[in-house]
UniProtKB/TrEMBL annotation:
InterPro entries: ABC3_permease_C, MacB_PCD, Macrolide_Exporter_MacB. It comes from Actinocatenispora rupis. It holds the Pfam family FtsX. PANTHER family: ABC TRANSPORTER PERMEASE YTRF (PTHR30572:SF4), MEMBRANE COMPONENT OF TRANSPORTER-RELATED (PTHR30572). Keywords: Cell membrane, Membrane, Transmembrane, Transmembrane helix. This is ABC transport system permease protein.
């Protein structure tokens, strides 16, 4: 118990005395856990929103549409409504596929004729205005948002003007732009409800009218079996001219995930990229802190602490921070996912429950980052002998002796910079990995830029804009991840350069004592980061193109010159950032450094 109390007091003291280090950890790991939590929760949130909408609208278990409005089609629907296993039905409703204009903008829409009285199955939930009345139109909310239409505006449907009297949501169709109820092409149709008497006086030259029927079943989970019964019944009894299309509620719910499918994959991939970037910077920070804690480890050992207790105390602080970062990520997902999971507004908002699987994955990621970040430095400090630890002597750095002869021919900044990099290979590898993960989304954005002209043309500007909705969501996700990764990479560059300056302060002070200027030392610290930056960009740019291909397989590879120029810009940015902490470190007084006992 005494050891546990001691460990807790030491952890609290560290957090209180070094809040900046704790803040950097929480920001870096919190960004990774938030991306993973949001990516894993999007599908669950969409399902929850559809279930809430389905409950509020008394949504059907099976939606059936015909190919025409012939008498045989209507007779087939009437027979379906009386089949065993059907517990309720709505309709049949007449549906007209036609062009709608709002403010001069054309769009395709399925117009459904409805009664003014509420239906027992599939009664759209009005979120603004009121339900249909003769001479008034109600628009599905996602379609209305895309058109920029509100209650009180006017739209033109098949050549007739209607005021918009309401905005509503439904669970009988997929979210906009996948909601048209007809057997024609999937052209991004919206959904409009009119009074039944109004639609019966309308016609369209673009597509024949048809009928829609909504059914509820005794066993909503057995829709596949019921669909097969409908198909068998249609083959055996229905008129050969009748064409029936059935969509169960499970298929409608799954279709709602299409818009966010690429964004979800991008966020999960981005979470691991953020984790790698966090490890790259936090490992240098942990190593720097471990060097500062060598003397504390010596005091603990002198007081009787075992190496295991010393390592546990050093690691436990980051373990606590990892759990807090995991909580931050889950909280961000709980707050942000309901809005992100409903990009078109076609569903009712619902809270995003954090599933056990998501919580375990997020916690595992945070703990893995903490383990990779701190385990090595903590073990090295714990294994330092007591006497050297009390003296505050750090572990001596090794460097390849064969480079000494070559270094003598190089300019002073290059010689010192390459020497610093060669003596810290592990840190250079981590820095390269961190910059590679930052370069990957930059390459993804570059790949996106060269895809914009290759979206298949469907013949309508408005429909093309809606077709681009899924790609636009993916693009926005990549932009957010790229910004987050670049910010973390910039922070890593500053942290790594500063830790290198502190580790090498005695050797650099000796170089200055023999004539090296502060400017040459600054250049050396900046040059020390260049091998890692070049290697990271060389690896990250092709990886980014490959990851984009995994998310959107139909890609065109960016020209080599664009990748080269972008990579050079990333390397140059890293070099410029490195000069800031390098300049601060190079201005330390030589006499004070050489006169200290720090190695």
């Amino acid at each position: 118990m005494g050891q546990l109390i001691l460990a807790c007091r030491l952890i609290l003291a560290d957090l209180r005395h070094r809040p900046l280090h704790a803040g950097v950890f929480l920001v870096a790991v919190g960004a990774a856990t938030a991306a993973l939590a949001v990516g894993m929760s999007l599908s669950d949130a969409n399902t929850g929103q559809y279930e809430r909408t389905r409950a509020a609208t008394r949504g059907p278990d099976l939606a059936v549409v015909t190919g025409t409005d012939g008498s045989a089609d209507r007779a087939a629907l009437a027979d379906l409504a009386r089949m065993p296993g059907v517990t309720g039905h709505g309709g049949p409703y007449r549906v007209l596929h036609t062009t709608v204009r709002a403010g001069g903008r054309p769009a395709q829409a399925s117009v459904q004729g409805r009664d003014t009285a509420p239906a027992t199955v599939d009664q759209p939930y009005v979120t603004s205005g009121h339900w249909v009345r003769p001479g008034g139109a109600v628009l599905e909310r996602g379609f209305a948002t895309a058109l920029g239409v509100r209650v009180g505006d006017r739209i033109t449907v098949a050549g007739r003007r209607f005021p918009v009297v309401g905005i509503a949501v439904t669970a009988a169709t997929s979210v906009y732009p996948f909601e048209g109820e007809h057997l024609g092409p999937n052209d991004g149709s919206g959904l409009i409800w009119l009074a039944d008497n109004d639609i019966r006086t309308m016609s369209s030259d673009e597509w024949p009218p048809n009928y829609a029927l909504d059914l509820t079943l005794a066993d909503p989970a057995a829709t596949d079996a019921f669909r097969q019964r409908v198909a068998d019944w249609s083959d055996a009894h229905a008129d050969r001219s009748v064409r029936l299309s059935t969509r169960p509620w499970q298929e409608i719910s799954a279709q709602n995930d299409v818009i966010l499918a690429d964004s979800q994959s991008t966020l999960v991939i981005g979470a691991w990229l953020l984790a790698v970037t966090a490890v790259a910077g936090l490992a240098s920070l942990a190593a720097l802190r471990a060097t500062e804690q060598v003397r504390r480890a010596g005091l603990l050992k002198a007081a009787g602490a075992t190496p295991g207790l010393v390592a546990a105390v050093l690691f436990a602080e980051y373990l606590v921070l990892a759990l807090v970062a995991a909580g931050i990520g889950l909280a961000v997902a709980w707050l942000a996912v309901p809005a992100l999971a409903n990009p078109t507004g076609s569903l009712l908002a619902a809270t995003a429950p954090v599933t056990p699987g998501t919580a375990i994955a997020v916690g595992t990621l945070a703990l893995l980052v903490a383990l990779l970040t701190t385990l090595g430095p903590a073990v090295r400090v714990a294994r330092t002998a007591t006497v050297p630890a009390l003296a505050g002597t750090a572990r001596p750095l090794q460097h390849p002796a064969g480079l000494t002869g070559l270094a003598g021919w190089l300019p002073v900044p290059v010689m010192l910079g390459l020497r610093l990099a060669a003596r810290r290979v592990r840190r250079a590898v981590l820095a390269a990995a961190g910059l590679a993960t930052a370069a990957a989304p930059v390459a993804g954005l570059l790949t996106w830029h060269f895809q914009t002209d290759d979206i298949p043309w469907y013949g309508d500007d408005f429909i093309m804009a809606q077709r681009a909705l899924r790609l636009g969501r993916t693009h926005h996700t990549i932009v957010v991840l790229a910004v987050a990764l670049l910010v973390l990479a910039a922070l890593n560059t500053v942290v790594i350069t500063w830790s290198t300056a502190l580790d090498a302060r005695r050797s650099l002070a000796v170089a200055r004592a023999f004539g090296a200027t502060p400017g040459q030392v600054t250049g050396a610290l900046a040059i020390a980061q260049l091998p890692s930056a070049v290697a990271g960009v060389a690896i990250g740019m092709p990886v980014g193109v490959g990851l984009y291909w995994l998310v959107a397989p139909t890609t065109v590879t960016p020209p080599g010159w664009s990748l080269l120029l972008t990579g050079a810009a990333v390397v140059l940015g890293a070099a410029v950032l490195a000069t800031v902490p390098a300049r601060i470190g190079a201005r330390r007084p030589v006499a004070r450094i050489l006169g200290s006992n720090l190695g």
